[in-house]
Design a protein that fits this description.
single chain
């Protein structure tokens, strides 16, 4: 492979990534190296010193083997997901066709892109590695062992990044040939993080760590992790912790296997890349619209029929056909399932209500964001129409309620039924709370997105509004506890959410009428 080709691509990738840094761009690399050196030599050891005794005791315990395996696997998996998620969220074919029109191989493009991004991944790798070496240093490890640990982290995490880059290339090429490929990519790019969240919740809940640390466990999870390269490195790290200054033959075999795995992944990835980008001419077929079925006829009937019902069906169709919108719902529902499985104890009184204060406002915000994420031009169309602003807000509010309330009520009902202390009265109370509380979240979220519009999911406005809705709902619940007392906190939270929501929605309508 000619070195000059992928090197030029790597250099251009680095320059493109740093192009928005302004005057600090020429000094960026030196600043990063200097700051990371200070972190590794001074900051990380200072942080570790606060917990040194507990950390040393942990690394010498049986649980350390399982925990290091899980942590290294999580880092590996995270670095694998980053390129996949970023590629899926913005599936573009034109960029690839530009490269393919040049006299270079697809493997040069992929390897050059990978190497161009390595300096930025190296920042995160150094932060993670520096913290681990600061923990391990007081155990009496020699310089060779420390160097091996550093190489283990670098090789393992870069392996994850490279594998993720290859998978992203395959998926991006495949989705680029599909008419709805961009929409599918955005949906997958969002919910792909759920497996990582599941592992984190399993660790926090304690079940995964206890299962791996227990010698009597079934061994299935251990066997699966044992085949992964991250576990080879974890075995070496825990071996060094138990035997400072000793480098056994088994350690050398595992370390060599890790290096061979990285080299093999690079070689195999370049071979796959030459086929991954061999795209055929994209051809799209026209979609056919089927007559409305019973579901959409019911939606129109609920909307009162006539023009309002027709508009409600149209907006509902547009929302449900965007897979990215469905992915938001799947993500929140997935989080709720994971929280119930790993974090919440069913026997705890009020656990379901407390959960709803955190998660249902998030669901409401994601669904309500559709009012502006559809684009500024759509808002102007309604604004030019007589009484269009008021009708748009009413339709969007109705559509959001039809989506959020049934989902939230179903989740609350299932969560309540799973509790051993459930009675019919508690079931009705919890579901009734959701039916009254969640619509207020929707009103507030819809008004907020009209006051602070988020015209694209790429910008920070969407996430900022999401955090505002969640934190504001939690804050109102805490205020209700103080003002109305613990016994009336739920009722007070419902009243406050409705009052604030109506005010914010009025402000949003006023802002939309004045929008230029």
């Amino acid at each position: 492979m000619p070195m000059s080709k992928w090197f030029v691509i790597a250099r251009n990738e680095y320059r493109i990534t740093t192009s928005r840094m302004g005057k600090i761009r020429p000094y960026f690399l030196y600043l990063v190296i200097g700051l990371l050196a200070v972190y590794v030599a001074y900051i990380a050891p200072k942080i570790v010193n606060f917990f040194l005794d507990d950390l040393l005791a942990f690394f010498l315990s049986q649980a350390a083997v399982a925990m290091v395996q899980i942590l290294l696997f999580m880092f590996f998996f995270y670095f694998l997901l980053i390129p996949i998620s970023s590629t899926l969220k913005d599936v573009e074919i034109g960029h690839m066709e530009i490269f393919l029109s040049a006299p270079i191989k697809s493997s040069d493009v992929l390897l050059g892109t990978f190497l161009g991004q390595v300096p930025f991944y190296a920042i995160l790798i150094t932060v993670i590695t520096g913290f681990f070496t600061a923990i391990m240093a007081p155990l009496g490890l020699n310089m060779i062992q420390i160097a091996i640990i550093v190489i283990i982290f670098v090789v393992t995490l870069l392996s994850g990044q490279w594998i993720g880059t290859v998978i992203a290339a395959l998926l991006g090429t495949k989705l680029g040939k599909i008419a709805r490929g961009k929409d599918i990519g955005k949906a997958l790019g969002f919910i792909i993080a759920l497996p990582m969240v599941a592992i984190m919740y399993a660790i926090i809940g304690g079940g995964l760590l206890k299962a791996l640390a227990d010698p009597g466990t079934s061994g299935m999870v251990k066997i699966i992790l044992g085949w992964l390269p991250s576990s080879w490195g974890a075995d070496i790290i825990t071996s060094f912790a138990s035997n400072p200054g000793v480098i056994g033959f088994g350690t050398l075999i595992r370390f060599g296997g890790l290096i061979i795995f990285f080299v093999a992944a690079l070689w195999l990835g370049t071979k796959v890349a030459d086929r991954a980008y061999s795209m055929e001419q994209v051809s799209f077929t026209a979609s056919r619209v089927k007559p409305d079925g019973a579901f959409y006829k019911t939606i129109k009937y609920i909307g009162g029929g006539r023009s309002f019902g027709t508009l409600l069906v149209s907006i509902f169709k547009d929302y449900s056909r965007r897979l990215q919108n469905i992915s938001y719902i799947v993500y929140v529902v997935g989080l709720l399932v994971l929280i119930n499985v790993f974090l919440l104890k069913p026997e705890e009184s009020g656990a379901s209500i407390e959960m709803s204060m955190f998660m249902f406002p998030m669901l409401a915000a994601f669904v309500a964001s559709d009012v502006t994420v559809r684009g500024k031009e759509t808002l102007f169309i309604y604004r030019k129409t007589p009484s269009g602003v008021g009708k748009l807000i009413r339709v969007m509010l109705f559509k959001d309620w039809l989506v959020v309330v049934p989902i939230a009520a179903t989740i609350m009902a299932i969560s309540t039924i799973l509790s051993p202390q459930t009675t019919f009265i508690s079931l009705l109370t919890n579901v009734g709370f959701v039916i009254v509380y969640v619509p207020a979240n929707v009103v507030f979220a819809l008004g907020l997105f009209l006051v602070i519009p988020a015209y694209s999911e790429k910008g920070g406005a969407l996430m900022i509004n999401l955090m505002i809705v969640v934190m504001f709902s939690i804050g109102l619940f805490e205020v209700s506890r103080i003002v109305f007392g613990k016994s009336m906190a739920v009722v007070g939270a419902i009243v406050l959410n409705w009052l604030v929501g109506i005010v914010v929605l009025s402000l949003g309508k006023r802002h939309l009428n004045r929008m230029e």
